[in-house]
């Protein structure tokens, strides 16, 4: 049985969604953020030294890092992997890594700047301008296909869900990007996504 150490309003919601899509059995251990700092509780450090989420336990191994967990689950579940054609397979790998490697750093910077209040205001505008480059590119990528790696949904879309949901909440993803908004609506409508929400508990970005 796969154990998911799930922190509220975090990247780990993607893991629950993927597990539902793949139909793999799992158990959730819930963690709540500190209401003042919004950081993960110290109990997560007992699971993994970094004290971050997601973390899973499977077959005696404790595995951290969303992309690594997603790749493991894709192999285990036999679905949502790369398309069979080379262009699709390369897109799958690109977006699997881009979600965390390129999108999340500016989103985290915007989160920190937002918490600084007046002190953070001078940095917000240039950060949003920088992030808009990402949004324009992603909007163009979906001009010829419904999903990030091709005509069918894959784990690349699962990985892209959290940064784009967060971007809709705090980084300028609005009506200027109709394809991205339509993509978010499509993932939110999926039964597996809804099932993951029901099991995972409150999620600020859905």
TrEMBL record:
All residue ranges annotated as the GST N-terminal domain in the record: 1-81
Annotated InterPro entries: Glutathione-S-Trfase_C-like, Glutathione-S-Trfase_C_sf, Glutathione_S-Trfase, Glutathione_S-Trfase_N, Thioredoxin-like_sf
Entry-linked Pfam families: GST_C_2 (PF13410), GST_N (PF02798)
Family matches, as SUPFAM superfamilies: GST C-terminal domain-like, Thioredoxin-like
Transmembrane spans: none
PROSITE patterns with a match to the protein in the record: GST_CTER, GST_NTER
Family matches, as Gene3D superfamilies: 1.20.1050.10, Glutaredoxin
Domain GST C-terminal: 85-206
Record-linked PANTHER family: GLUTATHIONE S-TRANSFERASE 1 (PTHR44051:SF9), GLUTATHIONE S-TRANSFERASE-RELATED (PTHR44051)
Protein name (database record): Glutathione S-transferase
Organism, scientific name: Sphingomonas abietis
